[in-house]
């Protein structure tokens, strides 16, 4: 009997390769952006790396991952400032496992207000056990250590 393929195709990988009907709001050699299928705010976009990185837990401190996340945030900010210029509040961040819905890293980019307003709970960091980490906080964790001052 045939078994199902061991690695089921990841939906976000398919979107990143443009093999779905999802409209890409942005695409470059590192990331793509598209609308969340189930928006929780006035504008709600996702920015994902083209490379399959499962979750924030797979990111490492250092220049490479720092640059990737900074770029994701840049793209999200640019899109929201273009499409929701009159929003007063924006929020950018990631769900941490086990609170993430899809195991392919994705940055939630929200132009508030939340619709409906109780959705805000899903995108608010609630301390160390919180399921959501703001992009700025994640960048703080990934920031490369300054080069050691040479003592020789
Ligand atoms: Zn993937
Ligand atoms: Zn998520």
Architecture overview:
There is one protein chain. This protein is an alpha+beta fold. It has a single domain (11-142), classed as HIT-like (HIT family, subunit A), CATH 3.30.428. Helices cover 23% and strands 23% of the residues. It has three helices and six strands. The chain has helices spanning 11-16, 63-83, 135-142, and strands spanning 24-27, 31-35, 41-49, 90-95, 107-114, 132-134. Strands 1-2-3-5-4-6 form a six-stranded antiparallel beta sheet. Mean pLDDT is 90; it is low at 1-6. One zinc ion (ZN) binds at residues 95, 100-101, 106, 108.
Let me know the number of strands.
Answer: 6
* N→C terminal distance: 66 Å
CATH architectural arrangement:
2-Layer Sandwich
Tell me the quaternary state. Answer: single chain
Radius of gyration using CA atoms only: 17 Å
- CATH class equals Alpha Beta
Shape: globular
Number of domains: 1
């Amino acid at each position: 009997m045939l078994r199902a393929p061991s690695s089921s195709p990841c939906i976000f990988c398919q979107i990143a390769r443009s093999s779905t009907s999802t409209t890409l709001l942005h695409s470059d050699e590192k990331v793509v952006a598209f609308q969340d299928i189930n928006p929780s705010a006035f504008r709600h976009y996702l920015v994902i790396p083209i490379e399959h990185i499962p979750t924030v837990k797979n990111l490492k401190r250092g220049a490479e991952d720092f640059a990737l996340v900074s770029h994701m945030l840049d793209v999200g900010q640019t899109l929201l400032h273009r499409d929701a210029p009159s929003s007063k509040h924006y929020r950018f961040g990631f769900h941490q496992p086990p609170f993430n819905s899809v195991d392919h890293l994705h940055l939630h980019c929200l132009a508030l207000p939340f619709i409906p307003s109780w959705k805000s709970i899903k995108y608010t960091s609630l301390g160390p056990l919180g399921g959501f980490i703001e992009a700025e906080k994640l960048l703080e964790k990934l920031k490369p250590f300054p080069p050691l001052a040479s003592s020789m």
